[in-house]
Specification:
There is one protein chain. By secondary structure, this protein is of the alpha/beta class. It is built from seven helices and ten strands. The strands form two sheets. Strands 6-7-8-3-9-10 form a six-stranded mixed beta sheet, sandwiched between helices. The longest helix has 18 residues, at 169-186.
């Protein structure tokens, strides 16, 4: 078994407000292994995005131990790439220049960064669009640019916070296929936050199910469907059983995300 790349040991998060402390996450303990694709699903407000921000080092933990590559996470991490729900592209910059923004911020050697950016553009199926502007791209293409930008500095971990939530159903399915292909090509460890149970099952090696706030791990499911996966797998009894089992957690809690 591959070693734990990301390790959480009794990690909690409590926000201090003017009305007193608010518990967001109860003690969480789990590992994410190198090269693994892990999705997190749960009711709205259960702390999924908070969990991702803790792993990115954008928020401090309240208690417990949280480590990346064997080192304690203490502040923003350079070894992660982050993709948000919106592509967050600069309208006045081309596809290539939006990706290279990562290099400018991190003061990376520009010649090597440009070469890597062009390779990522090819891997993401965006060849020929290097000099297009965001308004000339579809929503799915914009998110592919965002993924390329997150991968430019070659981080071992890709963190994704509901990256396809704003897309229509057909585009979202296509992007699931694209993300699977990019994941294969980049060999990254991926932590995906999603409201979509089918998306989580389709993409993941494991799915973590969170309870209502304060969030805790209600269950962890191994997804043993063969890879690579086509959309046809969604019509199989095995897929339907996994999705139904995971969905049952939210019916039991009286809540279900779309």
């Amino acid at each position: 078994m591959a070693p734990g790349l990301i390790t959480l040991d009794k990690v909690t998060k409590i926000y201090q407000t003017k009305d007193g402390p608010v518990e967001s996450l109860r003690p969480l303990s789990f590992d994410i292994r190198e090269g693994e694709f892990v999705s997190v699903v749960g009711p709205s407000g259960c702390g999924k995005s908070t969990l991702l921000k803790l792993v990115a080092g954008l928020l401090p933990i309240t208690a417990g131990q949280l480590s990346l590559l064997g080192r304690r996470i203490d502040g923003p991490q350079k070894n992660v790439g982050i993709v948000f729900q919106g592509a967050v592209l600069l309208a006045w910059r081309t596809v290539l220049d939006n990706i290279l923004l990562q290099a400018e911020i991190r003061h990376l050697p520009m010649a090597a960064a440009r070469e890597r950016a062009l390779a990522l553009i090819k891997m993401a199926g965006l060849s020929g669009f290097e000099h297009k502007y965001p308004w000339q791209l579809s929503g799915g293409m914009q998110q592919r640019v965002s993924i390329c930008r997150a991968l430019l500095h070659d981080p071992p971990v890709l963190l994704m916070d509901e990256p396809f939530g704003a897309l229509d159903a057909m585009t979202r399915e296509k992007m699931n296929l694209e993300l699977q292909r990019i994941w294969y090509g980049s060999k990254k460890t991926v932590l995906l936050i999603t409201h979509s149970i089918p998306e989580a099952v389709f993409l993941s090696d494991r799915v973590l199910v969170m309870s209502e706030r304060p969030g805790s791990i209600a269950a962890i499911y191994d997804i043993d469907l063969p890879r690579p996966r086509s959309l046809d797998v969604m019509s199989t009894p095995e897929f339907a059983h996994l999705a139904k089992t995971i969905r049952g957690h939210f019916f039991a809690q009286g809540s279900l995300d779309h």
